[in-house]
Fold this sequence. Notes:
Blueprint: H1 8-35, H2 40-48, H3 67-78, H4 82-90, H5 94-102, H6 105-116, E1 122-124, E2 140-144, E3 147-158, E4 165-173, E5 179-188, E6 195-200, E7 211-221, E8 226-227, H7 232-242, H8 244-272, E9 274-275, E10 278-279, H9 284-309, H10 321-345, H11 357-364, H12 374-386
Parallel strand pairs: 1-4, 2-4
Antiparallel strand pairs: 2-3, 3-7, 4-5, 5-8, 6-7, 9-10
Amino acid sequence: xxxxxxxDDEQDLQARAxxxxxxxxxxxxxxxxxxxxxxxxxxxxxxxxxxxxxTIPRAYGGQGRSWLDTVLVIEAMARSCTVTARIVVEANxxxxxxVMAYGTxxxxxxxxxxxxxxxKPAICITEPDAGSDATGMTTIARKVxxxxxxxxxxxxxxxxxxxRLHLIFARxxxxxxxxxxxxxxLAIKDEAKGLTVTKREPTMGLxxxxxxxxxxxxxxxxxxxxxxxxxxxxxxxxxxxxxxNSQRVGAGTVAMGIAAGALDLARDWALQRDQFGRPIxxxxxxxxxxxxxxxQLTASRLMLYAAARSRGPNGSAFPDPDLxxxxxxxxxxxxxxxxxxxxxIYGARGYSNDYPLERMARDVRMFxxxxxxxxxxxxxxxxxxxxxxxxxxxxxxxxxAAE
Length: 403
Ligand code: FAD
């Protein structure tokens, strides 16, 4: 058992992932950033090492591994390459875990086969006019006979253009136009007609991972592709979003892993760089910076591991929403600060494309935005602290929690 409570098996997995990260992934990271090309060669490495679909139950060909196992692999990859770490997040959490929790047998088999073959599924929630306020979405799934027809537009969809399996959230209308709530629908690119990638978003960082705008024009969903949680459409959105808590822990871990990599670089540089006739590591100003970076990193890691081990209420298979939100806030904000300080310790070289820190500083900036902004997650945490629904939500102000 390690000092952070990791079992021998977990430490073995961690060491194996760290070795692959260092020897195969790290040498590719700068080029992935420079070209912006999705790293299919790295996907093959992840696949052959069992890191794609590791949370998929054995019955569907996966390994039935835990959220914590996945977190350990994500952290190891993020130390070298953020894009690779994000592939591990999305090939084990998010859309695939939603299908595994709520899908039919057939849906689970099909989704598992895609991921185990190397697909990183896409989860499609955000729209140009519905970001934090996801329930304001206007993409419509209209019931026509026994099918649904989807029309609308999503943007900032990770994997837009390379993902095959898409989990699309849309407002459901029955044949008479009555609003049934928000539902989840599965579509497979190249099989479904009416799903088009209409733009690749130009991004500050994370450049090998395409962020796409998707347009749905009369996208037909057959009954076997409707992802219906046990509570049906009316309350199903909450179930579907509950699955997002695994992704949230994953995203926080990517940020933490980038920070861990940045701290390693800063430490090594502080020991090797001489100024005023001695290594800069001998200056107490930098020692205290490094110490603060370590404290923040350890706190983030502990909270993320705890969130990965936790389970939400009512028999949920997913991490606790409150702990997942707190962990993502802490880890994403701490990581931005740690990477920025590491860049400072590197001096001018930190600002150069010849060294990894400027890439890491661009990459890490995303994690207080995607997957629930730091502000919206604070709303979630505050509502738990106060036992109130807060006025910043679409439900408006209620003096006491209604449920
Ligand atoms: P807005 O909601 O417009 O927010 C603007 C600002 O207002 C933010 O600072 C926000 O915190 C603040 N704000 C909003 N509401 C409140 C409130 N109630 N209280 C306090 N402050 C508030 N989406 C997907 O569906 N699938 C993906 O795969 C995906 N991948 C992404 C990848 C990247 C790299 C990025 C950057 C985004 C991705 N997103 C994805 C979208 C992401 O989830 C949204 O950007 C996010 O939810 C915020 O929405 P918004 O950008 O429209 O900002």
